[in-house]
Amino acid sequence: MKAPLRPAIPSTTLRIVIVAPDLAPDASDPDAGTEAERSRALRIGLLEHGYNIVAVLPADVFLPDRLAQIAPDMIIVDAESQARDTLEHVVMATREERRPIVLFTNDDDTTHVGAAIAAGVTAYVVAGLAPERVKPVLDVAMARFQHEEGLRRELADARTELSDRKLIDRAKALLIRHHGLSEEEAYARLRRTAMEKRLKLADVAQRLIDVSDLLG
C-alpha cells in the first residue's frame, strides 16, 4: 500500500524554526554583532510575510531533542560562520523525520554546497536576506521538498513491491514443488489464505517460507 501524501501546507501557516546565533552576542566581537543583525533582518522578513516563527534555537547538542518536540514544518538555518557545524546538527536532527531545511548565509564559499544538499538541505541561499526574497525562496524550497518526498515514497513503494513479488514467487515455487500445483493454483492458494486470514499476500508468503525453512 502506498504511503499517503502529506497535504500541502499554505506557506504563511508554516510552523518555522530558525537555527541561528544569539541575538545578544558579545559586544567585543564585531563579527558576532554582524551575524546577529543579519539574523534579526531575516526574522523581520519572515514576520512581515506572515510566517509563524515558533522558535529560535541555537545549534547545540540539545537541538535534535528540541526539534523533535516542536516538530516544525520547516527549518531555517541562518549561519554566517560555522555553517558547516550548524548544518551537521540540523541534518542529524532530521534524519528520522525529514523536514525542509533552508540555509541563508552571506558566506560565498560554495565548496560545501553539494555536500549540504546531499545531506538533506533543501535550499542553500547565498546573500538572500532581502525581505522581498524570503517568500519566493521558501515557496520554492517547500515545493522542491514535497516533490523529493514524493519521489522517495515512489521509490520506497517500488522496492516494497519488488520485495513482495520475490517472496510470493518463492512461496509459489514451494507449493509447486511440494504439492504439485500449477503456478496459477499456487497463487490462488496463497491468495485464498491471505483473504481467510486477513493478511497481506506477502505476509502469507513469508510465513510459508519461514515454515519451510524451519522444517528443512
From TrEMBL:
Signal peptide (UniProt feature, chain positions): none
PROSITE patterns registered for this protein in UniProt: ANTAR (PS50921)
SUPFAM superfamilies cross-referenced by the UniProt entry: CheY-like
Domain annotation ANTAR: ranges: 148-209
Domain of life: Bacteria
InterPro entries listed in its UniProt record: ANTAR, CheY-like_superfamily, Sig_transdc_resp-reg_antiterm, WH-like_DNA-bd_sf
Entry protein name: ANTAR domain-containing protein
